[in-house]
Amino acid sequence: MSAFRVDYGSEVETAIGRLAETIESIPEVTAGYSSRWLAVALLDEDPGLDGPLDAIDGGADLLTLRDRLLDELRASLGDHADTKIVAARFQAANDIARAATDRTGERETTRTDRIDAVLTHRLLGIPIFLALMWAVFKITTDIAGVFLDWVDEAISGSLAHFVASLVALIGLDGTWIESLLVDGVVAGVGAVLVFVPILLALFLALAFLEDTGYMARAAFVMDRLMRGVGLPGKSFLPMLVGFGCTVPAVYATRTLENERDRILTSLLVPFMSCGARLPVYVLIAAVFFPNNAGLVVFGMYLLGIAVSLAIGLLLKRTLLPEGKHAPTIMEMPAYRLPMLRTIWFHTWTRTKAFIAGAGSIIFSTMIVVWLLMSIPVSGSGGFADTDVDNSAFATVSGAVAPVFNPAGFGSWEATGSLLSGFVAKEVVVGTMAQVYGVEDGVVEGDEPSLGDSAREIVTGFGGAIVGALKATPGIIGIHFDDGTEEGESSLLMTSIRQSFDESSGGHGASAALAFLVFVLLYTPCMAAAGAIRHETGTRWMLLSIGGQTVLAWLFAVIVFQGGKVIGL
Amino acid sequence: MTMILDRLLDELHTAQGPIMNSALARRLGIDESALDGMIGVLTAKGVLSVPAEFVGGDAATCSGAACGSSCVGLEKCPFVLNVPETYSLVDLPTSEVVSRSSQ
Question: pTM above 0.80?
Fold first, then answer.
């Protein structure tokens, strides 16, 4: 039986022969290696050979010959000539496999193939992606939203009363310390923590989709839209990360080879709604659109994608003309039943990071906001005892507020919330709780005992569970309540409604929608701006901040004025 | 006769958009494991780009509000989703491909 030999084609075989001939003239080499094997390995540029060969007599000449032969091969075979050897080897392996195995039909279709045929279908892929995202936000707002009141009651009711009691116990009630702790820290940070159930649900749903293998397909499905704006499909990967947090999403642009793609994607990623914006959407939607909260939140996420595509198109035709995009292979994981442990791990680590954020930057920002609201710049009040309208915070915010009059939310309260939101979007809700809460007195009334508070928390949780169960069929349009049950509006929600109604001349819903659009489109946070600077440079960061702010203002004005025209 | 590796590159060049590894294996009439081997070799040769890793993130910048204080660089950032590995065709001059593969 003759030894099997791969046929590398005439040009390569000639080069192998010439190399083998030289190898055979070096006894030190032929003693240890087959001359043909070594010739092939040399032409294949085996990285382990150059060093040892260079150290023996005649080795350097051999390597010089190899280099010359490779140059000749490239001249005759064109680019990637060095892959011809590998190609021939794979071809030989493929031929053997085909000869040795019985393949009478098509390759067996796996379950993953069958699911992919539907979920990544050319026409159905995007509608399915949107439908899944819709379900995610329905779960987030309708089911998890039921728990908001319970957490709110626990924090702004029981916890605030508890802190106030502690302060009174050490004789500091009525002082600025009580104001700082109750109106500043508990109201501000607490207002953000109230939204933990919402974020938990969002992260849970995303982790579920991620663990099944679907999120990887989402990037594939979105490729066509990305290519429309001159970006490779890979660009959607950082954008998917952006639904969680903009900062890692900007860093994830490093996966793109082309600098132009990296810059463009870094500029578009901030338009993706990060988790930190969700509390603002949910709060404002609950105040103005209680029956369509899910739709409003979903709409914000869709608008973010649409705006990013439109801006991408604009930049492609102006500052960042499209380059050549390399063909890409995406290695998809097989679909699988999600593992509870993995889902919980992702959900919890992400939620924990959000809570940790509330404990660091949100906490410190809330204290700064409280401080600015406690410093009087007019009127007769003293520190922490001033009418909030006369505070430094109201004065500074009031000076900027007229800018937002055409968008319907030109009050100092809304403006101040947006200003603080530049630090981090979670702070918007916290600031609202402070500015509206301080005016209306969130923590008032008889103080319940610790036992009463504990009972309220337990019964409130039971009520929330029942509410969530009742709300679940609502995702598919089945409602168990008769629609007359209106949620109880908190003082904060009532204050927000009044303020927006006043600043918009009675078009509160339009102004609220414009406010949400502004929150969606302006710079996500300082950290995101820092990440963009880090990845693209100061010039692009400034363009991002300036461009996003102007765009956010323009869209907010259009939404408000448009809403007024249609009577919203 | 067109070699299997050439067919793979042809499929990539003619694909309108990215192509999934399973679809590519089906078009070539080979198993995904065989395709994985080819991708590995083409990556080593510098014909396909190596999927970038989320490494070297600036922990100081990443420890912003939304990332939370628990975020210490991108490798550990909890918000980074598991995304598919992607391999792009590198359209480089031969000399550069060769120098990459010899590194």
Answer: no
